[in-house]
Amino acid sequence: MPSAENSGQPAVHRPGSRAPFITRVALRDYRSIEVCDVALGPLTFLVGPNGSGKSNFLDALRLITDALRTSLAHALRNRGGAEEIVRRSRKPLGLFEIRLDFQFPNGSTGHFSVGIGTSADGDYVVQEEECAIGEARYHVREGALVVKPAPVAPPASEDRLYLVNAAGLPEFRPVFDALSTMGFYNLNPDQLRALQSPDKGELLARDGSNLPSILERLEKPDGYSTKKRIEEYLRAIVPSLHAVGYTRVGHMETLSFLQKIEGADSRYWQFPAINMSDGTLRALGILVALFQTRVEQRIHVVGIEEPEVALHPAAAGVLRDALRDASQYTQVIVTSHSPELLDDSSIEADEILSVVSEQGRSIIAQVDAETRSALKDRLYTVGELLKADQLPPDRQAVPQADQLKLWEHDA
Questions:
Q1: How far is residue 78's CA from residue 63's CA, in Å, rounded to a whole number?
Q2: β partners of residue 52
Q3: What DSSP string runs through 69-129?
Q4: Domain extents in the chain
Q5: What contacts 89, CB < 8 A, 6 or more positions away?
Q6: What tens digit of pLDDT does each residue of 50-95 get?
Q7: Collapsed DSSP state (helix, strand, coil) of residue 403
Q8: Is the C-alpha dihedral spanning 166, 129, 134, 351 positive or negative?
Q9: How far, in Å, CA of 272 to CA of 283, rounded?
Q10: Cα dihedral sign for 221, 225, 226, 227?
Q11: Confidence at 119, pLDDT banded by 50, 70, 90
Q12: Rounded-to-integer distance, Cα 40 and Cα 186, Å
């Protein structure tokens, strides 16, 4: 089978970072991505212009999380249906496929693969699904169990992910928990300003809507040091800020900020979220998304779309440090087209996936050999090469679509 090693450079575990949970992502015919087979490390930057397909890559991972956390039908419906996900081309495809290879901190490894197609009536069908961890495995084809996970196994259905049922078996429960708690964020400042209904504050919502509840949880003893760390980074971005918290408004809650006003006395003044800038709110949301993993250790992956949006370029260094810091606790995947964020010699070639679009087809791969050499020799930073439009993907690392094998079992 194609592996991280022969699909590109292997994932590198740098000293001081946590080993990556997802070691390889292989996609076929997912939105604009015809074929993709890449290795991921503790911190990965997907770099490319707007519309190149960076968000489609993250969305493929998020689809798995959404389907496990809610249902496959709900996840597909939120994306316009399976027919809107399958890559459009001259030939009718009707099928998209995703494979995620993973490793747990205890050393156990495995993979999860799924292929979802459109049906004649315009609906969808899970054509194939496979999961393996250690010696345990199952394989489902169109609602029939080809390989059973146990002598007495839960039934399969062609319109649901079997991993939901297999989670009742102790071998597969860790896989379900890890894939269903991956966090992917595209934070909306307007949503962060709105009054919110309280919840348990366990996992930050994709749009950040439950941020006050997350902060409330972080004020408890097990999260206190994490909240202070978030505030330290936030002060580095907005020096006048002292602290951030939550405020109850009837049965709702919202964010509150303590800020020193220039020319005022030595007291800090409290301001509601509605008074704060988009950049401040997004910075807070990104920091909480990253560092919640110090308390909620079930989160093995955090993906953030364009964290630099609405932030002053001078804050790029602080944001970069926060991303690196957070990768000690969880795997971090970031999409970006910001030269400022990437303008640092600490960012290495193995942390970059170049994304370009050609005639509507996304090409995603490590940077080519010449660029890798230039970065290794510290001749340029990634940001400098991005400014010069010199981050080409290694096309030799992109397999042919019909050569990409996503399945271990062939009945």
A1: 10
A2: none
A3: HS-HHHHHHTTT-HHHHBPP-SS---EEEEEEEEE-TTS-EEEEEEEEEE-TTS-EEEEEE
A4: 17-182+333-410, 187-299
A5: 34
A6: 999 999 999 999 999 999 999 999 999 999 999 999 998 755 668 9
A7: helix
A8: negative
A9: 16
A10: positive
A11: confident
A12: 20
* Beta-sheet pairing, 95-103 with 109-118: antiparallel
Q: What class is the 187-299 domain?
A: alpha beta
Q: Rounded to whole angstroms, how far apart are CA atoms 112 and 132?
A: 7
Among 410, 395, 409, residue whose Cα is nearest residue 36:
395
CA distances from 113 to 57, 171, 178, 245, 355 (A): 15, 17, 15, 41, 23
Q: CA–CA separation, 14 vs 325, rounded Å?
A: 12
What angle do the packed helices 278-291 and 211-218 form, to 10 degrees?
50
User: Could you give the dihedral angle defined by the CA atoms of residues 56, 60, 62 and 65, in that order, rounded to the nearest 10 degrees?
Assistant: 170
Return the number of other C-beta atoms located less than 10 Å from residue 317's C-beta. Answer: 15
Which amino acid is located at 226 in the chain? Answer: T
pLDDT level of residue 405 (50, 70, 90 thresholds): confident
Q: Which of 181, 198, 187, 321 is nearest to 249 (CA)?
A: 198
